[in-house]
Design goal:
Layout: E1 3-14, E2 17-28, E3 32-36, H1 43-50, E4 58-63, E5 66-67, H2 73-83, E6 84-87, H3 99-109, H4 114-127, H5 143-155, E7 161-165, H6 173-190, E8 193-197, H7 201-204, E9 209-214, E10 217-221
Parallel strand pairs: 3-8, 3-9, 6-7, 7-8
Antiparallel strand pairs: 1-2, 1-4, 4-5, 9-10
The chain binds adenosine-5'-triphosphate and magnesium ion.
Keywords: ATP-binding, Nucleotide-binding, Transport
Protein name: Putative ABC transport system ATP-binding protein
GO molecular function, one term: transmembrane transporter activity
């Protein structure tokens, strides 16, 4: 399988704190990779650098042969909007919009007509088993439903990579497993790669491969389940 997204020699400091100290990683097309490691080890920083959200101080991030760190801000935003999807721990849905409008938002932003965007969004909400909350606002759903709405929104644009930072961090284990099952099943069906940050072994168990980050350095744990 070809490498889709990779990072080499990443360094990133926040003031005197070194968050990344030579971290590297390679993500192949369609694979689910779990980034694990203790709190404060640099997992989120690595994810944000990989996704082009945070510029590293040095090192390179390469997506399909393009150096993300050398792109203009506009080109990077465009890439994030069209090729990447995001799921965070919580708080990423727009509270004023219904769940359906939230899922449809990325399609609307890329110029799709409301009717078409909502039809595609309903399909995704059915797949994530949250079509029942389509007309409710995020504040009126359970935590697990909200995360599944966020997953539907991340997948609706058919991204090549879904970045998920502790997507089950605020859920109980049963709901966490349901989110992980639906996320990884949907990603595998569409061929999207998933880069997942977690410190829960049972969440990482849904991945093909684990990468461990310690003190801002990453190490591949190369095994296939
Ligand atoms: N915006 C920021 N400003 C200052 N320091 C930061 C910032 N973001 C991260 N850090 C620091 O960088 C280091 C790595 O943080 P990071 O958030 O990447 O860790 P993490 O592995 O995701 O931890 P957790 O499991 O707790 O989420 C930590 O020491 C953290 O305090
Ligand atoms: Mg983190």
């Amino acid at each position: 399988m070809t490498t889709l997204l990779s990072a080499e020699g990443l360094h990133k400091s926040f003031g005197k704190t070194s968050a990344l100290d030579g971290a590297g990683i390679a993500i192949r097309e369609g694979e689910v990779v779990a980034i694990m490691g203790p709190s404060g080890s640099g997992k989120s920083t690595l994810l944000h650098c990989l996704a082009g959200i945070l510029p590293p101080d040095s090192g390179t991030v390469t997506y399909r042969g393009q150096d993300l760190t050398a792109m203009t801000d506009n080109a990077r935003s465009e890439l994030r909007r069209t090729e990447f999807g995001f799921v965070f721990q919580f708080g990423q849905l727009v509270p004023e919009l219904t769940c359906l409008e939230n899922v449809a938002l990325p399609l609307r932003l890329s110029g799709m007509k409301r009717k078409d965007a909502e039809r595609a969004s309903r399909d995704w909400m059915e797949r994530l088993e949250v079509d029942t909350v389509a007309d409710q606002r995020p504040g009126e759903t359970s935590g697990g439903q909200g995360q599944r709405v966020a997953v539907a929104r991340a997948l609706v644009t058919a991204p090549k990579v879904v970045f998920a930072d502790e997507p089950t961090g605020a859920l109980d284990s049963l709901n966490g497993e349901r989110v992980m099952h639906l996320l990884t099943t949907a990603a595998r069906e569409t061929g999207a790669a998933v880069v997942l940050v977690t410190h829960e072994a049972r969440v990482a168990a849904y991945s093909d491969r684990e990468v461990v980050v310690r003190d801002g350095r990453s190490r591949d744990v190369e095994f296939v389940r």
